[in-house]
Amino acid sequence: MARNLEFAKGHGTGNDFILYSDPDGSDPLTLEQVQLIADRHRGIGADGVIRAVRTESLPNGAAVLDEDPDAEWFMDYLNSDGSVAEMCGNGIRVFVHYLVERGLADLPDGGTLAVGTRAGVKDVQRSTGGYRVDLGSWRLSGDEPLVSAPGLDVARPSLGIDVGNPHVVAALAGEDELDRIALSAPPALDPPIADGANVEFVVPEDPLVRDGVARIRMRVHERGSGETLSCGTGVAAAALATRHWAGPGAPHQWRVEVPGGVLGVRMFPTQDGEHVALSGPAVIVARGEFVFE
Ligand SMILES: N[C@@H](CCC[C@H](N)C(=O)O)C(=O)O
């Protein structure tokens, strides 16, 4: 049956999303519809599809509101292949920008909005030139697979980092290697990770630290989406892994360059352990109506 879907298209450093609102939670897309709308040839094209649902309308909404009664909106994030993801660091900034632009949330400069996600409630602050999201606490996942990809002579060791969703980060020898690896297929992980993982490749800049800020370059293959121009949670994981390798004394302020732009990462102490925050832009570039035949 034909139906129309009012959508917006946005991106954060080139990580692009289709967004739509479904306040009462009555209009989830099917797997096939998500795959079609995210298809770059037959649909609009996007790395992920985001549904804005009022938290109170969700079956598990009470638990989210227990965590934070201010989390009026929930970000229901799906990868372009229709798989479910716990969190999206670029997506959540674009999500908040979408809510603000549509008048669904009021957020003055400097103000903070609590957003429900499958990885818990996240605080997103509006600032000049973009948004800053507190991704919360992070942990070493314990996964340390060898990572291989076309363009790498030998498999590389990696470090598993969970920032709400799973990542493995591998360091490369230099810029040439980073530019050379082919990421059109998922990098092979040995041993594999049952639920899959986003895989980041990083190279430190020379010198690593300038004016108290550590700087790295990164490319990513995202679980459920393929190579993307940017991955916000991946950027945070890459900074955390590189700081881990750098040892004590490494800065807590990071600048991460991805093919789609530059993002900022900061690690800071809180009462419930160290948190990691991500800062960057969010843009809405189009609005339209998609017709599902
Ligand atoms: N692009 C996102 C991450 C999206 C989810 C990821 N592909 C997963 O499956 O965990 C980001 O900006 O963090």
UniProtKB/TrEMBL annotation:
SUPFAM superfamilies: Diaminopimelate epimerase-like. It is an enzyme of class 5 (isomerase). The active site is at residues 88, 231. Keywords: Amino-acid biosynthesis, Cytoplasm, Isomerase, Lysine biosynthesis. Its EC number is 5.1.1.7. It catalyses: (2S,6S)-2,6-diaminopimelate = meso-2,6-diaminopimelate. It is found in: Cytoplasm. Pfam families: DAP_epimerase (PF01678). InterPro entries: DAP_epimerase_AS (IPR018510), DAP_epimerase_DapF (IPR001653). The record marks 167, 222 as: Could be important to modulate the pK values of the two catalytic cysteine residues. Gene3D superfamilies: Diaminopimelate Epimerase, Chain A, domain 1 (3.10.310.10). Catalyzes the stereoinversion of LL-2,6-diaminopimelate (L,L-DAP) to meso-diaminopimelate (meso-DAP), a precursor of L-lysine and an essential component of the bacterial peptidoglycan. PANTHER family: DIAMINOPIMELATE EPIMERASE, DIAMINOPIMELATE EPIMERASE, CHLOROPLASTIC. Belongs to the diaminopimelate epimerase family. This is Diaminopimelate epimerase. It comes from Mycetocola reblochoni.
